[in-house]
Specification:
This protein is α/β, with parallel strands linked by helices and 157 residues long. It is built from eight helices and six strands. The chain has a domain of 107 residues. The radius of gyration is 16 Å and the shape is globular. The model has no long low-confidence stretch (mean pLDDT 90). Belongs to the SRR1 family.
């Protein structure tokens, strides 16, 4: 289990290490490579750029099929953003929508405004292989220069 949150205090980090958990030493901005290992990412309430960066870093059917993401609904992101903004700023989310399976977690009546958009996402290899080959050709690192709603803590911030 590896953890990272740019808001961890020194005391929190020390407690997590004492519990035997591994802390990722630097802010990867969500660009974590699964290196062929099956990996679950718990990314509740993260900004769209973090999901987009994670997809970019693992942009192949083989790697994505090893991912499970528990986080904000990709379908919800698609519904709330204009398609031109989604494709310009979060192109990897936009491109993988036809290759992802998503199941909403049941909402709790006490936390309707908090966890109402949380889903489990997985990427079946068969679905990913059905996407056009051009989808996999584009592997440019996301930069977010024109992004107006960027929700990410950058390295060094």
């Amino acid at each position: 289990c590896a953890l990272f949150d740019p808001a961890f205090s020194a005391r929190e980090a020390a407690v997590l290490r004492a519990l035997g958990l591994c802390l990722i030493p630097e802010n990867e901005e969500g660009k974590h490579d699964v290196q062929g290992e099956a990996t679950v990412f718990y990314m509740v309430h993260c900004g769209k750029a973090l999901y987009n960066n994670l997809l970019w870093r693992n942009w192949s059917p083989a790697a994505l099929s090893k991912l499970v993401i528990i986080g904000n609904s990709f379908r919800g992101i698609e519904e709330r953003l204009l398609s031109r903004i989604l494709e310009r700023d979060y192109s990897y989310i936009a491109k993988v929508l036809k290759g992802v399976e998503e199941m909403a977690l049941p909402s709790h009546p006490r936390y309707l405004d908090t966890f109402n958009d949380t889903s489990v996402h997985w990427f079946p290899l068969e679905k990913l292989q059905e996407l056009s080959p051009e989808v996999w050709d584009f592997v440019e690192e996301p930069m977010y220069q024109d992004c107006e709603d960027l929700e990410i803590i950058r390295k060094g911030e």
